[in-house]
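We were asked to recover a plausible sequence for a given structure. The inputs and outputs are reproduced exactly as logged, with field labels preserved.

PROBLEM: sequence recovery
POSITIONS: 347
GIVEN STRUCTURE:
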């Protein structure tokens, strides 16, 4: 098959959607012709040695809400199937002009008032409902089923368990990891409040990784590591003890999977997609959104276990790894390929 992937942000942006594309496109490239198209929006650096064809087009707007991707048409003419990220306003109908074998991927959240109006109108279009939609969680898929969408795949994110191996040592300090928590959407305001409360705990340290677009004055007990290469990132989380993700919006966080695979429990916001993905277990504490006291309760729960009951903490770490095994890339990636075969054969 000749499969084309489209997303708006440049692959160097390196968040969940970009990671998903790179991993899936690389996996499929051994058996299929793969082209990835993005704009140069959020480009941080050039990418080299990719296993697939990568095309970058100019980021343009039609209006302040609608994106202009009309220049994409020359790259779609020979495609057998198009996988397009759904949450970029103004892109859906342009994609549908060029193929009836389309999968819209729901990797992001629709949040603003204007976005909700746009999608409410868009989703009355039969063409949108008559193509396939891919969701990362059953919760999100069920919402769309109630809207009358029937061509649905539910396939979660995945983790390379050979790369993200269990940690072998328990650190002498309680290191709390907050990858990507550098914007208000990801909960940096909550991180600052929590870190300030815990300043008196000299054996607790916070670590933040990711590209920051605005100046942030981190508290003294928060160490900012910048944008890390994957190997360096893995080293950091293998030396950690707990994931802290006070995000306000999330579809399905790779950060949670990565930390569970290493063996780190997690304190995360009680967002419905996250709960749908990981369920209720001893290794995940779901804190009430924006409730600083509840986030602190979760952190101190695992801190006290680490400090006072090391054996139980080690058991929790092993349980975290067991949960991550359900999302092994060797299980999930073949399901993604099967999705594309079903869509191809259906037309």
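RECOVERED SEQUENCE:
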């Amino acid at each position: 098959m000749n499969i084309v992937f489209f997303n708006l942000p440049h692959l160097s942006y390196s968040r969940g959607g970009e990671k998903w594309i790179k991993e899936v496109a690389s996996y499929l490239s051994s058996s299929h012709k793969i082209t990835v198209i993005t704009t140069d929006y959020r480009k941080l650096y050039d990418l080299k040695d990719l296993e697939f064809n990568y095309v970058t087009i100019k980021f343009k707007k039609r209006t302040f809400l609608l994106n202009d991707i009309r220049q994409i048409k020359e790259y779609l003419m020979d495609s057998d199937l198009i996988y397009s990220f759904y949450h970029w306003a103004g892109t859906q109908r342009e994609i549908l002009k060029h193929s009836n074998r389309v999968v819209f991927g729901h990797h992001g959240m629709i949040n603003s008032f204007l976005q909700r109006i746009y999608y409410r109108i868009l989703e009355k279009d039969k063409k949108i409902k008559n193509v396939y939609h891919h969701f990362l969680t059953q919760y999100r898929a069920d919402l769309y089923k109630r809207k009358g969408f029937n061509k649905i795949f539910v396939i979660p994110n995945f983790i390379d368990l050979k790369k993200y191996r269990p940690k072998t040592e328990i650190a002498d300090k309680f290191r709390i990891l907050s990858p990507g928590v550098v914007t208000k959407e990801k909960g940096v305001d909550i991180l600052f409040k929590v870190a300030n409360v815990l300043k008196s705990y000299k054996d607790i340290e916070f670590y933040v990784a990711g590209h920051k677009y605005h100046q942030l004055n981190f508290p003294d007990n928060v160490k900012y590591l910048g944008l890390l290469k994957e190997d360096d990132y893995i080293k950091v989380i293998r030396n950690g003890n707990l994931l802290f993700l006070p995000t306000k919006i999330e579809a399905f966080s790779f950060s949670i999977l990565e930390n569970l695979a290493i063996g780190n429990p997690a304190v995360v916001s009680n967002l419905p997609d996250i709960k749908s993905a990981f369920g209720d277990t001893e290794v995940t504490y779901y804190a009430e959104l924006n409730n600083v006291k509840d986030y602190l309760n979760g952190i101190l729960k695992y801190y006290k276990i680490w400090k006072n009951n090391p054996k139980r903490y080690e058991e929790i770490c092993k349980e975290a790894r067991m949960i991550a095994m359900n999302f092994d890339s060797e299980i999930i990636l073949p399901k993604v390929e099967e999705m594309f075969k079903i869509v191809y054969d259906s037309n």
